[in-house]
Design brief:
This protein is α+β, with helices and mostly antiparallel strands. Helix content is about 15%, strand content about 35%. The strands form 2 sheets. The protein has a 6-stranded antiparallel sheet with strand order 2-1-4-5-6-7. β6 and β7 form a beta hairpin.
Length: about 150
Amino acid sequence: MKLKRLSLKNYRCYEEKVFLLGGVITLLDHNGAGKSVFMEALNYALDGDFNVSMVRKGCTSMSVNLEFENGFVLERRWNGSTATSAMGYGNPKSVTKEAANHEVARIFGLPIESVKVIVSSKELYYETSGIRRFLYAAYTCKANAKGCGRLHR
């Protein structure tokens, strides 16, 4: 199943950003532009492994939403004290992290441990045979972007 959209709110250097996805994506820009942050956000959407460093400095909440081409939406949120997950069509309903991860694994036909976005080229060398990894790229960045960079098609 193809990914359609990744929406970030108060995720690290992004205050509010929507990425339209599709096909193969390439990220190109200077250091500090937000390429790795984009990939980490995609990983967070897929696995729900929360770390407080994901929250934009000075913010009390954060959310990452991943929409698939069939309209299925996966949300990962932090409300200042608790990380939560939601999923569904149209208006996602709250679920446990484990239930969301189970659905991600079902969608990709893999164990959740095998669903990972490669954040650096070094990870390509550590690929275990039989484990598929997902590399999404095709965005270039504008130098005058607010925050950590503006990735666009």
